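Annex B.
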Amino acid sequence: MKHSLWLMIEVYTLDKLYKTVYMANGFDPAVNLAAEEYLMATCKENEVIMYLWQNEKTVVIGKHQNPLKECHMKRMKDDHIHLIRRKSGGGAVFHDLNNLNFTFIAHKKHYDEKKQFLVILRALKEYGINGCHTGRNDLTVNQMKFSGNAFMHQDHVSCHHGTLLVDAKLDELSLYLTPPTLKLQSKGIDSVRSRVTNLKAFNPTITVANLKDQLVRAFDQTYNGILSHHQMPTSQMLAPYVVKYNDWDWTFAESPKATVKHEKSFSWGHFSIEMAIKNGIIVNCMISTDALLDEPFLKFQDLLVGKKLKYKEMTILICDLFQDEQVKDGLIELMMNMCV
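lipoate--protein ligase: predicted structure tokens.
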């Protein structure tokens, strides 16, 4: 009799849906994306996860994008802006601490994009904001985008994540997501530029902190089941995933094959460089210049082949190879727009 009762209790428990909330406790983009991947790997069959997180200033590119085509690399280096590649597709986005990111994770049985979007829209209604789900990827209000969304699927677990522009610095968004005038041919996916807005423009009382609370309430209202708040995974649990997101090869070598051309006039002459790049490595290079200085431009051209398109490595090579300080400064500046 006891044994039968135990079986009934166990079956009943497994039949319940568990609504699990995670709140990130830091702003490191590599750690936050690592946590998302860890939660996908550990999500239970009878669980729906909502994970809320913020990043310090970061440009996040989609899985199939080329950062040279999406970002202003020099500005990002100057201003210490993170660059990171996520595992999902879609376009490039800019995060700061006034942007709130959300993630829904569930096994296919409970993964429901309509419900997930409903959680967001239901939370915003508490502020009198009537958002709309337009197309597949965007949430808008008054035809202006406040949320971009992306999706990924792994085995039997799916993930839906997106941004919520609460009071983000929109001028910085356009500053870093506007690449310089590089001539670049690539088969990667381009970002679609849209008119964007902050939610605070529609209700000045909204903040990241109180929006988190509203999202938890909406999550609880939208799904039947048992709601619980869980502690974030430990740094030790996340370590294997963090390594990948901090790896140059993941961020840049995963970019689609590309041909990059850049030219500029300096006080010492006009300089043009064209490079074919595959897996983040320069496979072909052609340099032309009308400079009269006795500097090893052709040797530079030959030495670039086989090198990774890393700014630090390019800087060392230029400083070791060239003598004229103006040439060094000019080439280093030019490479800032072309390297990661």
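The chain has a mean pLDDT of 89. DSSP finds twelve helices and 15 strands in the chain. Further annotation is deferred to the next reporting cycle.
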